[in-house]
Amino acid sequence: RDATQAVPGEGPKRADFMLVGEQPGDKEDLAGKPFVGPAGRILDAALKDAGIAREDTFVTNAVKHFKHEMRGKRRLHKRPNNYEIERCKIWLERERDLVRPSTIVALGVTAARSLTGKTVTISKMRRTPVELADGTKLIVTIHPSALLRIEDENDKHAAYRDFVADLQAARAAAGKSPAKS
Ligand code: URA
What is the pTM of this model? Predict the structure, then answer.
């Protein structure tokens, strides 16, 4: 209701990889493009480290509007509820039909819920590909903004490495050879 605009996915018409986030954040809401703010910067770095070119991926969100509450002048993100995830599913399905990725990466619980229809525990499901009903491979991992919230530098680096390893697993699931490091 209070968003500036709907934020659709972005990327090539046919892409091997589709990355699905939760919903646009403050910066994305203003720009009309997905993952252009702080979480997007971490995502870009991790994709590069995993040997995946962002330009070759279709990047989108499970929910297309920024849900937030005002805290003074700041717009604070609010997690979408199941009703909102369900209402937006038609748009994600339309994007999947158009792009036909071989592999989808769900970034966080909202994307995982939208794609599997179930409540997912990331730690139990991450890294191992599963097949969706239409044969698309799905890899579940954390949302990159979770990395922004880790204060301890060692913990943050370890979590970042795990995130990159999940993206590499997606690359392998798509049949791409491992990136040279
Ligand atoms: N977080 C998301 O889940 N999606 C975006 O586009 C930006 C931040």
Answer: 0.97
Cα distance between residue 59 and residue 55, in whole Å? 9
User: For the range 35-42, what are the long-range contacts, defined as Cβ-Cβ under 8 Å and sequence gap of 24 or more?
Assistant: 35/59, 38/145, 38/148, 39/143, 39/144, 39/145, 39/148, 40/144, 42/144, 42/145, 42/147, 42/148, 42/160
| Backbone angles phi and psi of 2, in degrees to 5 | -100, 5
Ligand 1 centroid, distance to 24 Cα (angstroms): 4
Here the tokens at position 87 are 């209402």
Kindly tell me the burial class for residue 98, based on how many C-beta atoms sit within 10 Å of its own C-beta (0-12, 13-18, 19 or more).
exposed
- The count of other CB atoms within 10 Å of the CB of residue 166 is 22
CA 26 – ligand 1 centroid, Å: 9
pLDDT tens per residue, range 142-176:
999 999 999 999 999 999 999 999 999 999 999 98
